[in-house]
Amino acid sequence: MLGRTLQEVSAALKQGQITPVELCQKCLSLIKKTKFLNAYITISEEVALKQAEESEKRYKKGHSLGALDGIPVAVKDNFSTSGIETTCASNMLKGYVPPYNATVVQRLLDQGAVLMGKTNLDEFAMGALGSDTGGSTRNPAAHCGIVGFKPSYGLVSRHGLIPLVNSMDVPGILTRCVDDAATVLGVLAGHDPKDSTTIQDPGKPFMLSSLTDVSKLCIGIPKEYLVPELSSEVRSFWSKAANLFESEGAKVIEVSLPHTSYSIVCYHVLCTSEVASNMARFDGLEYGHRCDIDVSTEAMYAATRREGFNDVVRGRILAGNFFLLKENYANYFIKAQKVRRLIANDFVNVFNSGVDVLLTPTTLSEAVPYLEFIKEDNRTRSAQDDIFTQAVNMAGLPAVSVPVALSNQGLPVGLQFIGRAFCDQQLLTVAKWFEKQVQFPVIHLQELMDDCSSVFEIEKLASVSLKQ
Amino acid sequence: MAAPMLRGCCLGRCWALACIDSSSRHGRGAATGFTSSGKRGQSFVAQQPLLTAQKSRKGEHKWAAVVGLEIHAQIASNSKLFSGSQVHFAAPPNSLVSFFDASLPGTLPVLNRRCVEAAVMTGLALNCHINKKSLFDRKHYFYADLPAGYQITQQRLPIAVNGSLAYSVCVGKKWRQVITKTVRIKQIQLEQDSGKSLHDELRSQTLIDLNRAGVGLLEVVLEPDMSCGEEAATAVRELQLILQALGTSQANMAEGQLRVDANISVHHPGEPLGVRTEVKNLNSARFLARAIDYEIQRQINELENGCEILNETRSFDYKLGFMPEPNLPPLLLYDTASLPAGADPQQVINIDRIQEQLPELPSETREKLIQQYGILPEHSFALLNEVGLLEFFQNVIKETRAEPKKVTSWVLNIFLGFLKQRNLAVNESPVTPSVLAELLNLLDRKVISSAAAKQVFEELWRSKGKTPSQIVSERKLELMQDEEALERVCHAVMEGHPQVVMDTKRGNPRAINKLIGLVRKVTHNRADPTVIKEILEKQLSS
Predict the structure, then answer these.
(1) What is the largest CA-CA distance in chain B?
(2) What pLDDT, in 10s, does the model give residues B99-158?
(3) Of residues B106, B206, B322, nearest to A159 (C-beta)
């Protein structure tokens, strides 16, 4: 049951094959068994069971709220959840219990979703899972063999999403299949008066049609994305995917995004600048961690922030402060904004030339083993990981990573589709077609654990091999 | 506060005023940072006429001072600029703080429509160009009363630019000539107010109240077109009146709704401008002029002693600059021509509509008073200068047949004088407009004399509940109406004082006054001196 898609589970709940409480308990049990993965910062067991009970009552009366009623969901720990600790994986917010729900969390709860807990992330989302600022939804999805969807900027409310880069952040959706992502998007999308950067359209449920004929589609392959660091395996999957579209009648053409090579540097300047600004509020006064020093306000700020933030965060704040200094502002920040405009225009030009969707790799390779991962510093690592995904955030476009195949090592590889702004539905429709063609195997964590129970006793894992 | 007019001092020579104050040369702190004592400032105009000062300064080098102002006015709105928490003065600490105001992570700003309208109204009233597109920025600095570590303001592209503010100066003999001066307005921008910090020295701690954090402010930047404290104070006063007339701000300096920072420098005429210093947070009208003049004098003294003027850098100057506020899209305003078809009226602001609905501005009101009642310009200023005075005046006019000039004189001299002496506001006056109107009617009908009227007024002030008529009859203040009887008295007095009569006939001008005085004594002051004089003159000539 836990390996099924959202729609399958929803149907099962409706038919009474399983109850929301049973489902919730199964989830909780698996969460406990996989605790060593450290995937959850907070498990909201009591809340989840309570919500599951409410859902069960509704199903019994035949008044289910919709496709998400009773469905277990997890929310990254940089989304504000009322009454549930929200830390952003930082010392600075240890013990911080928000008094309000992020809009997206509220919308999920309003549909009857069951909140299992708050998932882990790099401190203040500077590098990994969940919300998508530079690829943090799509990258992990590609590495884990699931669907990771980044909506158009302005489609989904950021109210309650603790920001990294306000002008690039979006809530991202991680699901087993594209249909599920569309279902969730239907619940989350639409104008929020509390977020002035959302579009006015109130939003409606996303029902994806099943595309059968791709002959009217034009797929673009950006040539600048063919970089030397791209692993040969991923390159071959990418190539095969392009051929697949072509063989089914779509037009597949090479396009150019000439400013691609500047996007990493540009992103770095803008990201650190916004970070420096957004982190200014963490002073220990109103909420969160406060040091013990009370000699003076300045001393208190300094110590609180030194204790509260890790090196990566402090490094970015310092960098951002540098770029925002009066004497540097024009040369760095403004220049980066201009380059950002150029990068965004690259996409506009390509889409205006008749291309519907772009097809690119999501990551350079399959997931790198832990020991190798920790060799590079965070900045190099981010630069490498985000190379295909970042420009999308700068342009505010929708993008989705769809699993394509397992590597020779047996690890998942994904490919990315990028669509026009606010053409999320079209993008997901194409992705759904591709998913159907590819038939990527579903990963069953339960079975996997049963097979490799001895391996999971070891805390640190070098690599995991999956049986197909 | 006295009328917002300059008493003949400023035409580039306001250093003269400052030198009168030169005895008080304590640190700058002495002149700034005062909160206003008393509800209405007493006259802060130096009473020394310019002439005296000029004499003492003859032969010295001339100095010219240049004063610019940054004025922060709290917008009169129900809720804050970017959040829904209420705006109230003197509420319990931290009782009006929303999640956004406390900078809880994940909260976002949502722009308050009323604040935008207030900015547009103010911009239009000050002849500004309204930018149809304006932008919001973050200004970063660390301070305990700024929870987010930045203030949202409009630095790059504010909502209104290039306006002007006219204020009036009285010059010449007896200050009868009115000159209009103009100060250019560089820009008007919307921005957030900060919270308040209270320093508890005893326990070495700072207490923070965030009630004010996030309240909408209009920052009005006045170019350095002013040349002394008086001009600055007058300009500020006029701005206050305009904001109050518009209803966009209550602009009460005592309650912190209007705060002024002054930029001041001095130079020799013809030479380049000097180094600027800043005098901050002047929140008392009374001390505004004095603080500025003090600083002008201080700079002159420093320079004359061969020292340099140091520009005190703000403590947060070296920190971050501005960054665009990413959570607020550009603010777009429309006029009737550019309004998109089918636009939701709740979501758009039409500048033309706001222009049409602008209330009457103080300058228009004064002009109307002059036209309608024939009063003098300086009186029109005085009437607008006191809260509630104009309304009082107009209510009196409604109920009396006395001439407007008479009413004006009574309201501005006698009534206002009584208020000032007792430090009262117009709305605290024990004498209502109706009562004063009744008194003036008695005077107008010549039931009582002018002197008697003043007596009655004093009594009215003291004992409430009595009408003027009651007091008049109680104290037997009615004028003698019987002219024949009066003639007999005059005749009798003349007969009783032949020497005085002789003096009068000889042309001694004071003699007749003596006679009048004698007649008044006999009649217990119940005869109109003017009438007495007429009768005496008639009898003397016959």
Answers:
(1) 99
(2) 999 999 999 999 999 999 999 999 999 999 999 999 999 999 888 889 999 999 999 999
(3) B106
**What is the set of active-site residues of A?**
76, 136
CA B232 – CA B249 distance, rounded (Å): 19
Q: Which residues of chain A have pLDDT under 70?
A: 1, 122-130, 202-203, 376-384, 445-468
Amino acid B470: pLDDT: 87
- Pairing between β-strand B205-209 and β-strand A114-119 as defined by DSSP bridges: unpaired
Give the residue among A385, A379, A376 at the shortest CA–CA distance from A316: A379
Strands A72-76 and B160-171: unpaired
Predicted TM-score of the model (pTM): 0.84
The pLDDT value recorded for residue B316 is 45
Considering only alpha carbons, which residue of chain B is nearest residue A100? B99
From residue B105, how far is each of A88, B92, B110, B234 by CA, in Å? 10, 25, 15, 44
The alpha carbon dihedral of B146, B147, B151, B152 has a sign of negative
Those residues with Cβ within 8 angstroms of residue A224's Cβ, 6 or more apart along the chain or in another chain = A256, A257, A258, A260, A261
Compute the distance between CA of residue B408 and CA of residue B382 in angstroms, rounded to an integer: 10
From the list B149, B205, B322, the residue facing A283 with the nearest CB is: B149
The whole-angstrom distance between A428's CA and the closest CA on chain B is 27
B99: contact with A, CB 8 A cutoff: yes
Give the highest mean pLDDT range of B25-39, B70-84, B172-186. Answer: B70-84
Cβ atoms B449, B479 nearer than 8 A = yes
ipTM: 0.88
pLDDT value at residue A318: 86
Residue B41: strand, helix, or coil:
coil
Tokens matching residue A139: 């990258």
